[in-house]
Every structure is written in structure tokens, then in C-alpha cells.
Automatic annotation (TrEMBL):
It is a multi-pass membrane protein. This is Na+/proline symporter. Belongs to the sodium:solute symporter (SSF) (TC 2.A.21) family. Keywords: Cell membrane, Ion transport, Membrane, Sodium, Sodium transport, Symport, Transmembrane, Transmembrane helix, Transport. PROSITE patterns: NA_SOLUT_SYMP_1, NA_SOLUT_SYMP_3.
Amino acid sequence: MGTLDWIVVVGYFFVMVAIGLWSRGRVQNIADFFTAGGKMPWWLSGISHHMSGYSAVMFVAFASEAYRLGLTVYVWWSLTIGVGVGIGAFLFAPRWNRLRSKHDVKSPLEYLAKRYNLPTQQVMAYAGALLKVVDIAAKWAAVAILLRGFAGVPITWGIVIIGLVTMVYSVLGGLWADALTDFGQFIIQAAAGFAMFFAVAGTLGWSFPVTIWDKLPESHSDPLAGPYTSTFLMALFLIKTLEYNGGMWNLAQRYMAAPSGFAAKRSALLSSALWLVWPLVLFFPMWAAPLIVPGLEGAQAENAYIEMGKQMLPAGMIGLVLAGFFSHTMAMVSSDANVIAAVINRDMLPHLWKKVKTFSADNQLKLARITTFTFIGVSMIIAIASGGQGFVLKVVVDLVAATMGPIAIPLMLGLLPWFRRIGSTAAIASVVGGLGMWAFLYIEQMNKAAWVTKGVLVSWPLLLSLVLYLAIGFLKKEPSTERDALLDSLSSDEPEPEKVKA
């Protein structure tokens, strides 16, 4: 990287910190910190939802899979998310918003105590929080690999530099800072993505999206290839539908922050459209990479996007592309840190430390900032200890994708009126059974069991979790008038009768 590239990267960091400082003035209480007070415009909520859904993992692990296998990574990743979020625009997005507007919910898990019971809420809170800290560690490792590849910065220092910048604006500005930086990062990442697309077009010709497939191995145009089978695709589609509609807690926050259920629905439809279209601009250069930087084998394929960028981009543009990589990771990490802080402060700490319930509004806000700081710090330490290389794809697919289903099923299906008679017994059995199945399969995979494919590892925990939730739920019905009232209140934006009277 040259001087101009470094100027671009450093300038980007300063802008992110400045947004955090400016957003601090908009945060007066924990409602502002965790849900933007329900005042976020639908278009900003939609863009923030999209940006918070992926990170630099795309340019490391997914770029590696695009280099090795071709089209399949778009089919099983971007396409499943885009369609799933579109479905969720009608099923889930408005309901998340109404939890905030009608029930003053500030954490995605806060409603679970009323929907099921307190033990169910606590099981899901602890399981999800532990999963998230490892997930974010993988994101730090991914962006640090990119920084090392472009600029020669050691993995550890890369994690520290990017983590500290993210920590500053996340701790200061809460969800407002997350959303505003998401928007700025969306602009930067768009410029960086088009820069790489045009650079590849200048080398291979403007028709390269069509012509490259004749020059690549025939299997690269297959919708499913390598370990990514139809079983894997179907399981991942259900997982991503649950995950990106709120099972990934930070994305539920984006819907909660919109002014109304209708606005949340519009934001989800915008995010869905972006998921279907924008990744194509990013993936086409990755699919063309074997023609530009051939011969990358094994773990070296993780550097495919880096090597192509170093070879093709002029001074200044490498810095912009690198800033685009940062934007993805920082968007996801800051939003995850915010929602984990919400879960810890609203759902976990009050039951561990009773004094928290008596805190003043100012002290609650201070505690939220301390929790955010701590979460980011712990995830950075795990990322540094991992060493980076090879850690990213294994965490994202083998851990996060495989365990997200069991954690998300009771959370997401619990929002829908069709499952109103399913209670806490089924919910806890679903989570514990699904995670137990994953642990068994993961140990078998570590022992080199050939039958534990990626499809098995991802689909079996999900299937068992879903079967347990439905079977136990319908065999042991646990009706509740309080639960019925809660679910009925989420069906429309109409205010509650007592609020009209008031």
C-alpha cells in the first residue's frame, strides 16, 4: 500500500470515530442506546439491516469458496438470505417493531420471559451470547487477514487497531452510531465494490460476467458444488430465514428501531432487494479471480481477493477497498456488541445482580456502555488467540450456521400466532437437544468421521430442534391467556385500547 492508500484508510477511521462522537448527543437513555428510540427512518433501518448482516468474512472465507467452487456460494448464501428476508418482511419484521412500541421491549430476548418463562429466556441468552462472542472473533480474524495481505500489518495489530476504532463509536453512540456508520460504510463499500468490478472488466472485457464461465472449470457454474449439497441448501435456507429475521439478535434491533410495524416491513423489503442484487457485484470479481491470479491452493485461496486487488487497483483504490472490508466487519461487530449489551443488561444481569433493577437512567446507560466495551474486548482477545488463518470459515459455517437454528427456532416461531400453545418445555428441549446434537456431530467430525459432512453438521441439529419444538409443543400444550394477549397485540400497528383511552 502506498501513502495515498494509508490516507484513505486513516481518514475512514477518523470519520467513524467522528460519527460516534456526534451520535453520543442523540443518546439520552438506554432506549436510545439499544433501539434508537423507535425514530430510525425505514430506509436507514433497511440499509443498516443489510450492512449488519455480513462482514469481511465475505472477502476471505467466501472469496475462497468462490475461487475454488464458483457460483454456489451466491446460491447457498446470498440467495437464501435475500429470499428469507423477503418472507420475513411479512412474518417477522412488523412483530419485532410492535414488541418495542407496545411493550417497551429493548432487547430481542426480553419478550421470552412472558412468551415462555424466565428459565427459557436465560438458557437462550447464555447460549446465544457465548456463540456471538466466538462469531465476532472470526470477523476480527477475517479483516485482520485482509489488512495483513494488503499492508503487511501483523494479525494481532490488525485486530487491535480495527477493534479499538469500533469500540469507540459503539460505546459512545449506541444503535444510532451503528446505523449512521452503516450508511457511511454502505457508500464506501459500494464505491470499493464497483472499483474492483470495473478493474476486472478492464482486464477481461465488459462482457466478463457472461464469458468467464467458458474459461473456468465446468463445475464453477453449478448452483451446488463441493460439500454444498441440496440438503445443506435447504437447511441453510431455513437457518438464514430465522437468523436474518431476528435470530441474529442485532438484526431484530433494526426492525425495532423503525417508527412502526409498516416501516419495519418496508425496511425488510429494502434489505431483501439489496441481498439479492448487491452481492452479485462483489462476487463476479471473485468468480473471475482464477483467471487473474491462478494457482492459489488450499488456505492460499483465502488471499484471492487480496492478490487480485494488489495486482489490479491503482494507488488510493486499494485503501478504499480495504476501507470497504473494514466497513463490513465494523458494521456487524458494532451492531452485535450493542444487542449483546442489551441482552446482558436487560435479560441476564438483573437476575444475577438484583441492584441493577434499582439503577438510575444515567447508571443504566453507563452500564450499557461498559458491557459493550467488555464484549468487544473479549472477542478481540479470542481472535488474537486464534491466529486467524483457517479459523474463519470453520467458525462461520461449522459453528455459527450449525448452532444458530436451535437457538433461533423458539425465539422466532414464538412470535407467530400459529404456535401460541407451545410453551417452555418444548422451547428448552428444542435448544438443548439441537445444541447437544451439534456437539455430538462436531466431536465426530473432529475424529474424522467421513459421514459428518457439512450438510449433516448444519441440518441435523436444526431438524432435531424443530422436531422437538413441534412434537413436544403439540403433545404437551401449555396454553396461556397472557401469551395469547401478547401475540394478539403483535398482529397490527393499532394502539392498545388502554393507550387510546390514556
